[in-house]
Specification:
The complex is a heterodimer of chains A (127) and B (227).
Chain A (H helix, E strand, L loop, with lengths): L1 H12 L22 E11 L6 E7 L5 E7 L3 H6 L12 E8 L6 E8 L5 E3 L5
Chain B lengths: L2 H13 L17 E5 L16 H16 L19 H4 L4 E5 L3 E6 L5 E5 L16 E7 L2 E7 L19 E10 L2 E9 L8 E9 L18
Chain lengths: 127, 227
C-alpha cells in the first residue's frame, strides 16, 4: 500500500522529476511537461547568483506588452556551456523556451534560448 | 647554476617518492578532481521505494501538494532560502564539487553555496557531544578501492532530494564511493533513519570527472528573490 501511495504521489507531483532542470526556485512550481516558446525584447538582464534573470517585454495577441521573467541557472554553470553576459543586451530580441509557472504568473524556467544571431544557448547549464 | 634544478628535484623526490602513479595504483585510491553529477534528477532514484513511516509519508505528500501549487517566489524547498542541502543532496545538485585528499582528511569543496565538507580519515570517531548540523560529521576509511564515509550529527532541516524526501536528526548516512573508471565516480548512499524510514534503503549515483573545470564562487543570497 505504501509502495502504491508513494508512486502515486511521485506520478502526480513529480512527472517533472524525469526531466533534468536546475534547482533553486523549486522547479515543481513550473509546468515542465508543457514548455512554451516566447519571443520578446530584452528589457534587462541580472547576471547574478543564484540564478540569471532576463526580463522580456512580450507582445500578446492584442499588441499589449507584458513582462516575462525568465530564470536560467547560475552564471557559473551558464558560462560553462558558452554563455557570456555580453551576449544578451537590452533592446535585443530573444526567443526563449521554458517551463511556465503553474500559478499563471509570467515567470518561466529557462530551458533554452535563441539569440537574434541564431545562436542557441542551453538555459540549464549542464548539457 | 645547473645544479639548482637537480637540488629541487632531489627535494621533491624525497617528499614524494613516486609522484607519477596512476589513480588505480595508489596505496589509497585517488578520487581527487572536479566531479559533476552524470545525470541530474529531481529525485534520489532509490534502488527500492523509500519505506516512509506513516508520519513521514504524510509530510512528504504535503510537500508534494504545496510544491505543485505554490507561488514560485515563496519558498517550500529549504535550498530556495539558501539553506545548505545536507548530505547526500549537496553532492547531487547540478553544480560541480572538487574532492581534495590530504594526509588525514578528504575535503569536498562544493560550488553550490560554496560549502566545504571534511571527511576525517585519521581514524577518529564521531564526537559524543555533536551539535546537529546541516552537513553532519563525517569520517572515512578505505576498504580496498572503496572509500566508506560515515556521517551522523544532522539536524532535520534539509531534504534528501528536491522532491522533498524527509529525514530526521537520527539519520545515519553511509556512502560507498569508488572510481569505476578514470572519468567515473560511483557513490552508493545508504540512508538509515529509524525515525523516518521503516528500514535502511540505498540509492546509487554516478559523477563524471571534469578536468577542465575549477570550482567557482557561488553566492546564493546575492539576488535571491524567494521569500
Amino acid at each position: 500500500m505504501m509502495k502504491r501511495v508513494f508512486f502515486a504521489v511521485v506520478l502526480i507531483g513529480g512527472i517533472a522529476a524525469l526531466r533534468p532542470i536546475s534547482a533553486h526556485h523549486s522547479s515543481s512550481s513550473y509546468d515542465m511537461e508543457h514548455p512554451v516558446n516566447v519571443k520578446g525584447v530584452v528589457k534587462n538582464m541580472e547576471w547574478t547568483n543564484p540564478h540569471v534573470f532576463i526580463f522580456l517585454d512580450v507582445k500578446d495577441d492584442s499588441g499589449a506588452v507584458e513582462e516575462w521573467r525568465v530564470e536560467g541557472n547560475s552564471p557559473n554553470m551558464l558560462t560553462r556551456v558558452g554563455w557570456r553576459k555580453e551576449l544578451i543586451n537590452p533592446g535585443e530580441t530573444l526567443q526563449v523556451n521554458g517551463a511556465p509557472a503553474k500559478n499563471g504568473s509570467k515567470v518561466m524556467r529557462l530551458i533554452s534560448l535563441t539569440l537574434a544571431s541564431g545562436q542557441k544557448l542551453d538555459g540549464q547549464g549542464f548539457k | 647554476m645547473a645544479a639548482v634544478p637537480l637540488v629541487l628535484f632531489a627535494q621533491t623526490a624525497t617528499h614524494h617518492p613516486n609522484p607519477i602513479r596512476s589513480w588505480a595504483t595508489l596505496p589509497n585510491p585517488d578520487f581527487s578532481g572536479v566531479w559533476f553529477i552524470e545525470e541530474y534528477h529531481r529525485n534520489l532514484l532509490p534502488n527500492e521505494d523509500p519505506p516512509l513511516l506513516p508520519a513521514a509519508l504524510e509530510l512528504f505528500k504535503k510537500v508534494q501538494y504545496e510544491s505543485a501549487h505554490h507561488d514560485p517566489d515563496v519558498a517550500i524547498d529549504p535550498t530556495e532560502r539558501c539553506i545548505p542541502p545536507g548530505i547526500p543532496r549537496t553532492e547531487l545538485q547540478p553544480f560541480p564539487w572538487e574532492l581534495v585528499q590530504a594526509r588525514d582528511r578528504i575535503v569536498q569543496i562544493f560550488e553550490y553555496q560554496s560549502l566545504v565538507r571534511q571527511i576525517f580519515t585519521d581514524g577518529r570517531g564521531h564526537p559524543s557531544d555533536l551539535e546537529p548540523t546541516y552537513m553532519g560529521h563525517s569520517t572515512g576509511k578505505f576498504e580496498g578501492n572503496t572509500l566508506v564515509i560515515d556521517t551522523v550529527g544532522f539536524n532535520d532541516k534539509t531534504w534528501l532530494d528536491p522532491m522533498g524526501l524527509p529525514h530526521s536528526d537520527a539519520m545515519h548516512v553511509i556512502e560507498r564511493m569508488r572510481r569505476v573508471d578514470h572519468d567515473t565516480l560511483e557513490n552508493t548512499y545508504t540512508i538509515d533513519d529509524p525515525k523516518t524510514y521503516a528500514k535502511p534503503w540505498t540509492a546509487t549515483k554516478t559523477f563524471k570527472l571534469h578536468s577542465d573545470w575549477s570550482i567557482k564562487e557561488y553566492v546564493c543570497t546575492e539576488n535571491n528573490t524567494v521569500k
